[in-house]
UniProtKB/TrEMBL annotation:
Name assigned to this protein: Carboxymuconolactone decarboxylase family protein
Organism domain of life: Bacteria
Domain Carboxymuconolactone decarboxylase-like: 23-101
Pfam families from the UniProt entry: CMD
Amino acid sequence: MSKYKEIVTDIAGNMGALSQNIPEVMKAFMSTTKAGGKEGALDAKTKELIAIAIAVANRCDGCIGFHTKTLVELGTTEQELAEALGVAIYMGGGPSVMYASNTMGAFKEFSK
């Protein structure tokens, strides 16, 4: 299994245990996830592109995995992703370059 697919699988499995221990918190988190991703003035892909830029700027490997997987499922092109990563680099500087590079690797993994 490749790196980001493994990260997503591991975290998804661990979230079950977390949900058993703190069900109210996880239910609230999932509710926030649904509400934040709901289409409105912005479509789902645009919201996910914003999320991936924030994930890169915050250096969150798990977030990169989950949001990149979703972007691939939504039909995002490599160029659309690259431009969102450009915004993340602009906002996050050098460390974001490192995570943006890893995100391109995640895109290739999930695109296979």
